[in-house]
Amino acid sequence: MQETRTVPAGPGPDVGNLTQFEYLALNSPLNIADAHARQELTAGQARIIDDLPNLFLKAAELPVEEVEREAHRAYFGLLGQHSYPGDDGRVLACYSSSVAMEILARSLAGAMSSVALIHPTFDNIPDILRGVGLDLVPVAEERLGEDDLDDVLGSVGCVFVTTPNNPTGRVLSEEGLSRLAGQCAERDLVLALDTSFRGFDPAGHYDHYRVLRDSGCRWVVIEDTGKLWPTLDLKVGWLVTAADLGLPVAKIYSDILLGVSPMVLALVQRFSEDAADGGLADLHRFVAENRAVVREGLAGVPGIHFPDPHSRASVERVHVGARSALEVWSSLRDHNVYVLPCQKFHWANPPEGNSTLRIALARSAAPLGEATRALRSVLLAR
Ligand SMILES: Cc1ncc(COP(=O)(O)O)c(C=O)c1O
């Protein structure tokens, strides 16, 4: 498989997708490319890992339904999502949010030909939607809470929003979601949300399920435990649907999987409880400190700025001024430091990302500091 994990070596218009860039970084200690959580475990989290044999035995003994219910209660409760539909099989556990996305995309493809999609966003979302034959209409993220989206909504069957967005960290406010859901209800469109980065920003902790339910629209939410905690990719992507969605999501889910390991669900439950017990506030502090490490470490470099001053997501964009982000990426690679060039986030217009890099903040302070120093020296040399 290794030989498929390549992107073109030098700058050029046909660069690989973001995950291909992330593959290249996987073996470097200075990998600040992917947004998976790779920092050290906290003391509380380390105690849970020490208890893994017990967790395994407990997960094996209990009825799966009970393990799932407890994991839902802990995770959705932690993030303020109290109105999630826990009682009637509408929270489907997937191995990852991309698997949830694939199931959703296949469900949409039988019912419509085009989807309005937030722009920019992580490129595996447009890639999965296009992969099932759907046409995409870009909607700038700052437009999504607006009253009048007639020009976009008239031609699509679904609106797909990543909130908080990756890479910008922008959150759709409660009022914005309510307005958008109202417009979707009027036009009988499906409103789909990817909330993978929800845990990082309290602005995303209002009860989305209440707003969606009250709007009367047909909705789907993809939740993701995978970005929050350093669980070595033991994670769940939850595919949550409205009762009247009218799409064959449950059938397509059953075409693909039976369920997620109860061990992983039990782990998510324990990490959620630890987070509720102070771990989430610690995580928010940790990400904020790492953001400061990057911003302070690059302070005074001519021409650069940080386009997302209010972001609380575990990623930070850096605008590199007149330099080419791909060339900076390439020079950093000579130092064994890996970041992400942002073109592919701008899936409808990649040149918009020519001058931005994305840095992952869910890393221990030492490698993040070292990578930031390398970035500073590369930027100063250009
Ligand atoms: C917003 C968003 N959704 C989904 C995914 C896919 O996550 P996974 O690789 O765990 O399926 C990513 C990956 O970074 C993402 O940023």
UniProtKB/TrEMBL annotation:
Listed cofactors: pyridoxal 5'-phosphate
Pfam families: Aminotran_1_2
Keywords, in A-Z order: Aminotransferase, Pyridoxal phosphate, Transferase
All residue ranges annotated as the Aminotransferase class I/classII large domain in the record: 91-372
Record-stated family: Belongs to the class-I pyridoxal-phosphate-dependent aminotransferase family.
Name of the protein described by the UniProt record: Enduracididine biosynthesis enzyme MppP
GN (gene name): mppP
